[in-house]
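The record is kept unedited without comment:

——
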Amino acid sequence: MSQQRPPGSVPNIWASAERPAFRKSFALELDDHLAILHASRQLLPTGLTVGAVGLVALFVSLFTNFDKLQAGDVVTFIVYEATTIGACTALTYLLLKPARQFLRSMYRRRLAKAGVIGKPVESTVDTNGISYTVLGQTVTCTWDSLYALEEDEGTFHFWMSKLASHPWPSRVFSSEEERQDFRDSVLKWSGRPFSAPVLARLGAAGRANLGTDGGRDKS
């Protein structure tokens, strides 16, 4: 009797001598797209955002209270500076969560309108390279045509150019053993390993500023 697979689970198909390929069915969600569009999946990182607002508050307060410093009222100047910076950074920290939720909803609507979120992807990695089908369109890339191979927090990125990546999210693998088998197979088939996430960590804006060969895997 064949074993029933739980509804919604990812098919677990491993490469073998009889079937020299990995095939997965999955859908790209918001965080998958954010990982490619931005240098971080976390929109508005806490330290960077609060620090930036604090720096802006410092310069604004210096400009608006410089007359007190010129008049020699140093104590009042310092109190105004500290109060302004403290109030702005505290307010920013309190508003981070709703601001992140707003940005995520904005991105989700934009991606849904473009029809690229939550759509089934049928993807195959084998001796010839990668191919995937989404919305009735199939894209095929041979190993020598790929711009780079990267791994970022368990997600494998097949870069077709410095801007476009076809990711295999970490969740499609059922175990670390399967993930390692995948790494070994790609190394055997392509002749190059997955490298550190250089392109993945740059974000779309950073990759757009790269030179012609910037970030290309030359191994």
Remarks:
- The longest strand covers residues 21-27.
